[in-house]
Amino acid sequence: MKRIVVVKLAPSPGQYAALKATLDLCNAGANMVARFAHSATDRRPFALQKQVYGHLKASGLSAQPAIRVIKKVADAYATRQANLTNGNYGPPGSKRYVAVTGKAIRFRQDAGQPFDDRCLSWQIDQSTVSIWTTAGRLRGIGFVCAPWQLKQLADRKGESDLILRNGQFYLHATVDTDTPPPLIPADDPTGWLGVDLGIVNLAVTTADDPADLDARWSGGAVTARRKRHQALRSALQRVGTKSAKRKLKARRRKETRYATDINHQLSKTVVAQAQRTGQGVAIEDLSGIRDRVRLAKDQRQQLHSWAFAQLRDQITYKAQAAGLPVQVINPCNTSRTCHRCGYFDPANRPSQALFRCRDCGWTGHADHNAAINIAALGHHSYRAAQSTAPKAATPLTAS
Ligand SMILES: [Zn+2]
Q1: I want to staple 236 with a disulfide (CB 3.0 to 4.6 A). Which of 12, 132, 224, 248 is the partner?
Q2: Residue 239's pLDDT is what?
Q3: CA 342–ligand 1 middle distance (angstroms)
Q4: Cα–Cα distances in Å, from 94 out to 82, 99, 238?
Q5: What spacing in Å lies between the alpha carbon of 249 and ligand 1's midpoint?
Q6: For residue 214, how far is its CA from the centre of ligand 1 (angstroms)?
């Protein structure tokens, strides 16, 4: 089983500056290679390498980092090609398709950079790494992670990505391991914090007090605000002048910032709950969120426009950074199955907020019931991942 171990680096100010300069140079190089690849017919790493390797070396990259940069660009183009082929940017000739293929791929100045074993070595016993930078090889950069992560790093293989996020450097190491983190007692179903995502309540967890949900998690204010934005957007779209278009763009950016901000607050609270209770985080994959609820058209619009993928990614990322295991589960039926007796019936949910089991009679908050089911699925899929563990019988299916 492959997983990513995230460790936070603790560089000195001098080391920090060298890491930053290295990342900048790698991404400047990547943009140069991407511009070249844009007009190239053969974008495979070896073909690109013949053309750009000399330029990269001249810019100050040494041999291995230069090759990693070329590979990164080739991978980005391969991913883009797969997306184009799968129609993710619309049919050939469509506006989006043309916009995507019309320009070279751009890498942000702080985009992540893969380092292989020749450029990055781990001294796990000392909790340090040694890494190639433009200022030479830096030795003894400390890193911070949870004790179980330290054990997993022993199984680390291949490349690690250097990531700069919110001014902090992280390494994302790939480990191949059969042993999941021994943080959760295997038979303790309370060992997982279940997170249910939705529109009316953006996120409800098993640690929330069901009586207090509306005060803390309500998406009502968010929904009202989005409705206002929607009306404004439609009005601006109808006007269609240059200045209306400019305003539309500004408004869109403002909405994105707002969603990101809300998502940060939500993800922070969820992960703090998990930390406080010493639980792993069980969260649904996103396929379910669209299929699960039958929605009126305007609600569907809201669902698509809310950044659920971002919310889930933030929860996952922050949980992992806090050393907590994360299980992503298929949420199919979690909202219509009674967590107490396992009885499944769409009629169990007479209204959006209310759950009333037609079999055992348990009555409570529908999202809270779903969160408990998600926690149980997290537990089951975690157990299933342990090769020795027998698969527990459950009316729900873990993905
Ligand atoms: Zn029941």
Answers
A1: 248
A2: 86
A3: 6
A4: 17, 9, 22
A5: 49
A6: 24
Which residues in the chain show pLDDT less than 70? Answer: 1-3, 148, 177-190, 213-223, 286-306, 386-399
Mapped onto helix, strand or coil, the DSSP state of residue 289 is helix
Compute, in angstroms, the gap from residue 348 CA to the centroid of ligand 1: 9
Ligand 1 centroid–CA 310 distance in Å is 33
Give residues whose Cβ lies within 5 Å of ion ligand 1.
338, 340-341, 343, 357, 359-360, 362
Report how far ligand 1's centroid is from the alpha carbon of 361 (Å). Answer: 6
90: left (phi over 0), alpha (psi -120 to 50) or beta: left
Please report, for residues 231, 327, 348, 368, the alpha-carbon distance to residue 211 in angstroms, rounded to integers and kept in the order given: 33, 27, 19, 10
Task: Kindly state the tokens that stand for 33.
Answer: 């290679």
- 360 alpha carbon – ligand 1 mean position (Å): 4
Q: Are 330 and 287 in contact (CB under 8 A)?
A: yes
Distance 344 CA to ligand 1 centre (A): 8
Residue written as token pair 């299933």: 384
Distances (CA, A) of 238 to 224, 242, 251, 288, 348: 22, 12, 15, 34, 43
Q: Tokens 């929860």 sit at which residue?
A: 315
Q: Residue 90 has what pLDDT?
A: 84
- Could you tell me the distance, in angstroms and rounded to a whole number, from the CA of residue 162 to the centre of ligand 1? 48
CA 367 to ligand 1 centroid distance, Å: 15
Domain boundaries, the chain: 19-113, 189-385
The verdict on pTM exceeding 0.85 is no
> Are the beta carbons of 208 and 216 closer than 8 angstroms?
yes
In the prediction, which pLDDT does 178 show?
Answer: 59
At 10 the pLDDT is 94
